[in-house]
Write a structure and sequence with these properties.
This protein has helices spanning 22-29, 59-66, 87-90, 112-120, 124-130, 187-195, 222-228, 252-259; strands spanning 2-7, 39-44, 49-53, 79-81, 106-110, 133-137, 143-146, 149-155, 166-171, 175-179, 198-202, 235-239, 263-264, 270-272. With 273 residues, the protein is an alpha/beta fold.
């Protein structure tokens, strides 16, 4: 099994729309500093099956990058799993409609509340009506296997204006934990991180001081997360980085993260599991 980070940025990616801070300007000048919106690919190499978690606004580029992993070099996925209804995580669904791919019957796995959101809101409802996507509900908290890849979805606290938010435990030869978006780390979440071999977790902000609107859009800061997860054996990568996060720049912040035994995910990162 192979896991590939297709996007390690927050919902708008880096560079951020109409922002000209140092981090965004660096990303405009050099691709190495760019981060697409959040998405993870999971590939069962033996069976040539490819899944994607979340359909970001950058899905066109992200699907193109998956071609090299397919035996027929096709730009396609066999299933899509969703975490929640925020734009950076489901905005790319529209690409499956007739104005773009016009795909037929793509399996989309989600919670009951997410299904209700998609069926009840245009333009997503149109994709369901036309048969571009086929919604499959999983029971949160239970395990299921799809194309030889094991999953368990679980609810996490987040700004759920519509629907709910889930994270995923993913099983191959090793166990991988994926949680790009959460308001704070609960005891259950910390337990799941501790039990996994590899974890990709919310690294939106390094500290609360980065953004004046922090109370409106809370995320566990990297500083607090590192303090909470000290002495855990799990290989932990921060993803979903906001353009304000100083971890995007080479320097003391990056060094501090690495010195504490953590890693920063990047677009194109591949891990066998």
């Amino acid at each position: 099994m192979k896991a590939i980070i297709l996007g390690s940025g927050q919902d708008d990616g880096i560079p951020h729309t109409s922002c000209f801070c140092e981090i965004c300007d660096n990303a405009r000048l050099e691709k190495i500093y760019q981060r697409l919106a959040p998405s993870l690919a999971l590939i069962n190499v033996a069976e040539d099956k490819c899944h994607m978690i979340d359909a970001s606004p950058d899905i066109k580029l992200q699907m193109d990058r998956l071609c090299k992993y397919r035996k027929k070099n096709e730009c396609s996925i066999d299933a899509l799993l969703l975490t929640h209804s925020h734009s950076g995580h489901c905005g790319g669904l529209w690409r499956f409609g007739k104005e773009s791919m016009d795909i037929e019957g793509l399996r989309v796995l989600c919670s009951t509340k997410m299904k209700e959101f998609l069926e009840g809101n245009y333009p997503f409802s149109l994709l369901v009506e036309r048969g571009n996507i086929e919604l499959n509900v999983f029971e949160v908290g239970t395990s299921f296997t799809l194309d030889g890849i094991g999953y368990q979805a679980f609810n996490v606290p987040h700004r759920d204006e519509a629907g709910d938010t889930v994270g995923y435990l993913i099983s191959g030869e090793r166990e991988l934990f994926y949680l790009p978006d959460v308001d704070y780390l609960t005891e259950e979440v910390i337990e799941k991180i501790s039990g996994a071999d590899i974890a990709f977790i919310d690294g939106t902000f390094y500290s609360k001081d980065e953004i004046r609107r922090y109370r409106e859009i809370p995320h566990p800061t990297m500083e607090k997360t590192m303090a909470q997860l000290t002495n855990i054996d799990t290989e932990i990568y921060f993803t979903h980085l906001n353009h304000t996060n100083p971890a995007n720049l080479e320097g003391m912040v990056q060094k501090n993260i690495i010195d504490n035994g953590f890693y920063i995910a990047f677009d194109g990162l591949e891990i066998d599991f």
